[in-house]
Specification:
Layout (H helix, E strand, L loop, with lengths): L1 H19 L9 H4 L9 H25 L12 H6 L15 H19 L6 E3 L4 E4 L5 E17 L7 E15 L3 E8 L7 E12 L2 E9 L4 H4 L25 E11 L4 E8 L14 E8 L12 E13 L27 E14 L2 E14 L15 E16 L33 E15 L2 E3 L9 E3 L2 E15 L4 E12 L10 E13 L1
Antiparallel strand pairs: 1-2, 2-3, 3-4, 3-20, 4-5, 5-6, 6-7, 7-8, 8-9, 9-10, 10-11, 11-12, 12-13, 13-14, 14-15, 15-18, 16-17, 18-19, 19-20
Helix pairs in contact: 1-3, 1-5, 3-5
Amino acid sequence: MRLLRTWCFVSLALLLAALGSPVYGQGTTPADSAKPAGPAASEEEVQQLRREVAELKAQIQRLVQASAPQVSGGAHLVQASDVEASAVKPDDANPSAIATTSDIEALQNEIEILQKKASDTPPATSGWTGEHFFLKSPDGQFTIMPVGYLNAQYTFFKGDGAPPDTFAIRRARFGVQGSYGKQLDYAFLFDTAATNGISVRDAYIDFKPWNAFQIEGGQFKVPFSQEVGTGDTNVEFIERSITTQLYPDAAGTFRAPGAMLHGNLRDGMFQYWVGLFNGKGIIANNTTNEPEITGRIRFYPFKKSSNEKFKGFAVGASVEHSRSRGLSNELSFSGVTNDSAFTFFPQFRINGGIDRYNGHFQWLYGPWGVRGEYTQILEKRTGLGSEQLGGIGFQTLPGIVGKGAYAQVSYLLTGEREPENAIPRVKHPVIGPPSPGETGGPGWGAWQLKFRYSWIEGRAPEFTCPLTTCPITPVIFPLQSDHTDQFSGGFNWYLNYWVLLKFDLNVDRLVNPSVQGISRQSYFVALQGVQFRF
């Protein structure tokens, strides 16, 4: 009797010690359950835990044997109820001292829990997500992933006054991104191929307390255009459309320091972005006391529809307002085409408000992708000082107007689905492992056809300063109205999820030349590019 009680007490003490140890588990009280998980057990601690579990099981077995009735004439099988009924009677002074069948079962359940915890694999602190390498803290709260991409290209020009053919490293960017807890993301991205040396492209944190309300601050892309919102590695053409000259901060890779509110409503059917920025490009201070204000909305009207054909349809609109400063020698939008073939429109000094408007749409269905966008800009020239002695003084000139649009279509010949702002999941890669989520074997990769039409125009209205207003030097500004359009076509070859070859042919039609000596003509620009990302 005393031996049985002793074993019970020893077993329970060992079990409670194992359950209470911070190395092997957490307490079950509400206070303990609110604490963060402890560090993962080492291999030596796991082995020690398994040895203690084995000892507990041996003790339980001896308890069972000690509680079984002794029958003369040899051992024989009995029912469990008979064992409980014929067990040694409890001590009147301590009726709970003998282990019953229910006590043994409870102990066995606790042992199974300990065994499962001992056999659990410790959380990974480094590895491969299928898309990026990662490092993670043992508690999983802090994650860091190295990321980067390279875009190299060769450009061939044909046309009077066109630039020479050239190889170029368009982008060579490297950085890190990750998360701290579940509500804070961050990213740092540097461009080592920038003309001014190593330059910061992205540096921001994104606080996400709720899906409908998120706060982002630092330097990142201004949320004005659908085309710019597409990641640099996900753009299907080597160059974005010629309309990009009308977007905010075009000279600064569409990025600027600032802060933004954004979110998703109704399970992503409605998205919004509202931000304040310096509006002068990357790592640049504002030149006025008025920040650049940008707002954008996007709506998926059929996202919850049962008809798959329209789920990928979305429409949106954007507005932007900022202010320029003539004394800082700020100029109107650039008239250089996106492939640098020629300059279709000159730049003018501006001073005053800048207003932009944009509308965009997309339709994605299976291998098809259709996208389009329209943008308009008005840059004022209020109280602009004369650039020559005796000129027009501080007259207010008519503003500079720019308009442009594009429409594009793409089709994946090899059966992949057209994604939104992502690389297609290549079913049969030429090299390397399959894409994340794909199980297809090696093959010819993914092939995609693409076509785009875009146009842009600039207009500076004529202005005359007569002798009565400009007595020393009368000034006449002739009408400047120039227009160009571009046909782009080609194909993409996705060797796998990380390596992409692009082949584009642009036909640029210069309708109204703005530079003296350049005749009305068409330019042919062939571009070949390779992209590697990780």
